[in-house]
Amino acid sequence: MKAMVDFFRTMLKMPGPWLFWLALLMAANMVGPIVFIKSLEGRMVILAAMAGAAFQIAIFGSKGFVRLLGIGHLPWVPLVFWLWTRLDHVPQDGIFRYWILSVIVIDTISLIIDTTDVVRYISGDREPQLVLEP
User: Fold this and answer.
1) pLDDT score of 119
2) Tens of pLDDT along 18-69?
3) What is the DSSP string of 20-88?
């Protein structure tokens, strides 16, 4: 529980543009699924977000706020592909479809950023990006 609280407290130390990006991620992957929780897509997005958060909190607990945290979004890889296949099964217009499209776009951009971060970590950039002061 402490690692989770510290993880979220550390995230709040991110620079303004990254906090905005984080808000977009949270809106698409945590708030949107609650709105659409009765749909299979809503349940799968929130499941992937929760699994990713669990991975990230575990990594944070052992390594700190390092670039390896991007690996926590691995559950989004199959999710994005699956959501793409679902587009033929949802109405062509309306907020539900726009939400699915936003998840696909936002998560794909995040996966590109995450891949860059993980490659940088593997290449030796292992210093914590943020540190929570006691």
Assistant:
1) 98
2) 999 999 999 999 999 999 999 999 999 999 999 999 999 999 999 999 999 9
3) HHHHHHHIIIIIHHHHTTTSHHHHHHHHHHHHHHHHHHHHHHHH-B-GGGGGGGTTHHHHHHHHHHHGG
Residue 67 CB coordination number (10 Å): 21
Query: What angle, 0 to 180 degrees and rounded to 10, lies between the N-to-C axes of helices 95-122 and 40-63?
Result: 20
* Gap between the Cα atoms of 63 and 23, Å rounded: 24
Beta partners for 65? 130
Contact 82, 44 (CB under 8 A): yes
The helix/strand/coil state of 130 is strand
- Separation of alpha carbons 32 and 99, rounded Å: 7
